[in-house]
Design goal:
It is built from 14 helices and no strands. By secondary structure, it is an all-alpha fold. It is a multi-pass membrane protein.
C-alpha cells in the first residue's frame, strides 16, 4: 500500500527526490571544498599525501604569497575596474532602452523590438566584430570590452517586460504633477524596479568579472589583462619553467587553488546581499511578453 504525505505526494517519491538532491549537492560542494582545503595545505603535505580533503597542517602561505604578488594584485584591480565600470554602462544602457521599448506610443517600437530579437538568433561573428573594433581604434582599450557587450538582448527583453507591468496610472499622475521623463524614470520607475535592476546587475557583474575571451581578443597589453587571464596562465604553467626556488611557490597547487578561491570570493560575498532581490527579479517580468 502506497503512503502519502500531507501534500498528497508519495513518500517513496519524496525520499527519492531528497536523496537525488543530496547527491547533486555533494557533487557540487565536493570540488569546492577540495579547492578551499588544498589552498590551506602546505606543499610538503600535498606532495606526500596525494589526494585528501582535510589537511593535517594548516597554513596561509599561498594567500600571503598572492597578497604580495604584484601581477595578481594588478590583475585583480583590472578585473574590479572592468566589473564596476562595465556593469554601470550595461545597466544604464539596458535600462534606458528597455524603458523606451516598453512604451506603446514609441514610433518604430516593433521594428526595434525585432532588431533586438534578431541579435539573439544571429550574431555578427568574431572576425567582423574585431574589424569594427579595430576600425574604431578601440583595440587594447577597455572600451572594446564595454561596448561589445554593452546590452544583452535577453536581459533587455525581460527588463522591458518588467517595465510594462508597472501601472500607467502612476506615470500619468507623475506627469500631471509636472514630472519629466528622466525624473519619472529615476524617481518612480527605478525604485519600483529594484528587484529586476538588482538581478540584472548581478548578471552583468558576473559576466564582466569572468571576462576572458574578449580580454585576450582585444587587449594586447598584458598589464591590462583581468584576473581570469592571469588565473589561466597560473593554472597552465608547467613545473619545468621554474628557474629558482624563490619562484617555485607560484606554481604549487596551493597557490593555484588559493587564486581560484580569491577569484570566486567577491561574487560569493556580493550574492547574499542581492539574494532577496534576485529571487523576486527572476519571476517579475517573465509572464508578460
Amino acid at each position: 500500500m502506497r503512503r502519502f504525505d500531507a501534500r498528497g505526494n508519495s513518500v517513496t517519491f519524496t525520499w527519492f527526490t531528497c536523496g537525488l538532491l543530496l547527491v547533486c549537492l555533494f557533487s557540487v560542494l565536493f570540488p569546492f571544498l577540495y579547492v578551499i582545503m588544498t589552498s590551506f595545505a602546505p606543499q610538503e603535505e600535498i606532495l606526500t599525501r596525494g589526494f585528501f580533503l582535510i589537511p593535517h597542517h594548516w597554513t596561509i602561505n599561498a594567500y600571503r604569497y598572492l597578497m604580495h604578488n604584484v601581477n595578481f594584485l594588478h590583475s585583480f584591480y583590472n578585473a574590479a575596474y572592468i566589473t564596476i565600470a562595465g556593469t554601470l554602462i550595461n545597466m544604464v544602457l539596458t535600462s534606458f532602452m528597455a524603458y523606451g521599448l516598453s512604451k506603446s506610443w514609441l514610433k518604430g517600437r516593433k521594428i526595434l523590438n525585432f532588431m533586438v530579437l534578431f541579435t539573439m538568433l544571429f550574431g555578427g561573428g568574431i572576425i567582423p566584430t574585431y574589424l569594427i573594433v579595430k576600425s574604431l581604434h578601440l583595440v587594447n582599450s577597455y572600451w572594446a570590452l564595454f561596448l561589445t557587450g554593452a546590452i544583452a538582448p535577453f536581459h533587455l527583453i525581460v527588463l522591458r517586460s518588467f517595465f510594462q507591468t508597472i501601472p500607467l496610472e502612476l506615470e500619468e499622475s507623475a506627469r500631471i504633477d509636472g514630472c519629466g521623463e528622466l525624473r519619472l524614470f529615476y524617481r518612480i520607475i527605478l525604485p519600483l524596479s529594484l528587484p529586476a535592476i538588482a538581478t540584472f546587475t548581478l548578471f552583468y557583474a558576473v559576466q564582466n568579472w569572468n571576462s576572458y575571451f574578449n580580454a585576450i581578443l582585444y587587449l594586447n597589453d598584458s598589464s591590462k589583462w583581468p584576473l581570469q587571464v592571469y588565473l589561466r596562465q597560473l593554472l597552465n604553467q608547467s613545473d619545468g619553467s621554474v628557474e629558482s626556488a624563490a619562484d617555485a611557490l607560484q606554481f604549487t597547487p596551493a597557490v593555484r587553488m588559493a587564486a581560484v578561491v580569491l577569484t570566486a570570493a567577491p561574487l560569493l560575498m556580493v550574492y547574499p546581499f542581492l539574494q532577496k532581490y534576485f529571487n523576486k527579479g527572476m519571476l517579475m517580468g517573465s509572464v508578460k511578453g
